[in-house]
Every structure is written in C-alpha cells, then in structure tokens.
Write a structure and sequence with these properties.
Structural class: alpha+beta
Strand content: 5-15%
Number of strands: 4
Radius of gyration: 28 Å
Helix content: 55-70%
Order of helices and strands: HHHHHHHEEHHEE
Largest sheet: 4 strands, mixed
Length: 245
C-alpha cells in the first residue's frame, strides 16, 4: 500500500526523514493487516465460530435464525437436552459451547414448519428494525450537517455582539457523516463587505491558499487512517467547500 505524505510536510523533511516516515507508515499498515489475520484465525479456532461457520457453509439454516431461536426457546427446548447430554458425555470446558450450539442447531432443524415460520418472521422483523435504525442515523447525521450553517451563524452572531462587531472565518473538517471512510472540509465566513462578499469570496485562490493546506492536514489528525477528501453536498452562501482530489 502506498502511503501519501502531505506536500507541506514533505517539503520540511529531509530525504532520510522521509525514508523513515515511509517505513513507519508501511510497518503500521502491516501491523493492521496482521491484526486482521489474527482476528480471523481466532474466529476460526474459537469453538462457537467454527460451529457457526460450519453450519452456515452447510446451508442448514441461517446463523441469525439459530440465534433468534436460541433466545426464544433455549430454556424450554434446548437446555434440558444439553444438560442430559453433558451428564452422559463429559466434555472439556472449551467444548461446552460447541456442544450447546450443536444441540441448538439440531433442535431448530427438527422444529415444525410453524415454529420455523415464527423464527423466520421474528428474524425478518429484527433485520427491518436494524435497517430502520441505520437509516434513521444516516438521516439524523444528514440533518445535522445541513443545519451546520445555521448553528455557526447563531454562534458567530453572538460572538460578534460580545466583541463589538468582530467578524470571523473558520476552517473545519473531519470524518464525513454521510460517507464512511471519507473526510469533508469546509470553511465558514461571518461578515461581508459592502459589495456583499465574504472573506472567502473576496480572496483570490482562497481554496488553494487556506483550505487546501487544511485538507492535507486533517487526515493526519487520524494518524493511522487515510481518508479520501471530497466535496460536501452542503450549499450555503457563507460556506466555502473543499474540492475532490
């Protein structure tokens, strides 16, 4: 993976420092990949994980449906069978979870069509609720983003009154609430000239001179996360948006 170093930072570093920086970034990326591999190995070796993976691979039933079945019927239908089986066949503590899961899976497979239908409907209901919650969060984040100009306007109006008529310009940026893995940067300007121009609108090359360096800086506030910078969908006369690059 090729790690990009902001232009402004690269200019201030010697060639040897740049070499060390790239080595550090590459090692960090390798460490992250190793963690993912170890996590997968743990899942594969974990008793519950192995049984779940096997059941899903065999296509016997959806893992989520088995989980729902366990929550609804474990005490009344599965637990007695598990207790009886464990009394007859002593198992190691590490194997108990596997045994429980196997009995739960078998019980669900042997259930009547009526019970299976009940579980399928409950599973579908839970999935719809989850999707609804995700949509609500996305909608709420979008609403907050769209209300940002109004909030900033109120803040700076109060500050202007407290400071005897001062005006303000601010640059801001961070994780894009509407697009996971990306960042969004923008600037807000309070106050206008007699011609109705804000500081951003009246300054030639404002983006290149002020916002672009900030765009290059923001990803480094998340040292081990490298984002894609793109323009926001926010449109407001006092906002200066970032550009895609």
């Amino acid at each position: 993976m090729r790690m990009l170093v902001p232009t402004n930072l690269a200019k201030t570093l010697s060639s040897s420092s740049m070499k060390w920086l790239h080595l550090i970034l590459q090692q960090t990326h390798l460490n992250q990949q190793n963690k993912k591999v170890k996590l997968w190995e743990w899942f594969q070796n974990n008793s519950k994980g192995k049984v779940a993976a096997q059941q899903h691979a065999q296509g016997t039933q959806d893992l989520k449906e088995v989980e729902v079945y366990s929550k609804l019927h474990y005490k009344s239908k599965v637990k007695p069978l598990v207790s009886d089986a464990l009394k007859k066949n002593l198992v190691q503590p590490t194997q108990r979870l596997s045994a429980v899961w196997q009995h739960t899976t078998d019980c669900f497979a042997d259930e009547s069509e009526e019970i299976k239908k009940e579980i399928w409907e409950e599973t579908a209901s839970q999935r719809c609720q989850k999707i609804g919650q995700c949509c609500w969060r996305e909608s709420e984040n979008k609403r907050r983003s769209l209300s940002l100009p109004m909030i900033l306007g109120q803040v700076f109006e109060e500050l202007s009154a407290l400071t005897g008529g001062w005006h303000y310009s601010v640059v801001m940026g961070g994780a894009d609430p509407l697009c996971e893995g990306d960042i969004m940067t923008l600037s807000y300007h309070h106050g206008k000239t007699a011609d109705g121009l804000s500081f951003g609108a009246s300054t030639p090359n404002f983006h290149k001179q002020y916002l672009l360096p900030f765009e290059q800086y923001v990803p480094w506030t998340h040292p081990w996360c490298f984002f894609t910078v793109h323009a926001s969908s926010l449109i407001h006369p006092n906002l200066t948006l970032s550009s895609t690059y």
